[in-house]
Amino acid sequence: MDDGISKPSTIGRVLFGLGLTLQASEDFRDMDETIEYAESADVPMPELLAPLASGMMFISGLGVVLWRFPRLSTGATVSFLAIVTSTMHDFWNADEESRDGERLAFFGNLAMFGAALVFLREAYGYE
Predict the structure, then answer these.
(1) Fewer CB within 10 Å: N-end or C-end of the chain?
(2) Residue 3 has pLDDT above 70, yes or no
């Protein structure tokens, strides 16, 4: 069925989505630590929002891997990364001990955000 939406690179799409899904799995595996980390970043209602964010990342990652509901999957990924990158990894406000790790996580998320924008564009079928 041709719905006007092109499929982006299968390898890149699967690796990207799998990375999101596996990271979310890690978050779920140690949710107490994930909630604690969210608390340290002053996330409101971390006991609710940390699992919700991890679930969003898991489902959207699967959607990207399978290229199912690509607009919703990539849109959720873009939204997730836009919020999490700046709020959870604000290295410019981090103490000296954690600054390098937060900077590395910020730049990693920034790269994923760029990839997510490319996949979002593909999901809408732009040339």
Answers:
(1) N
(2) no
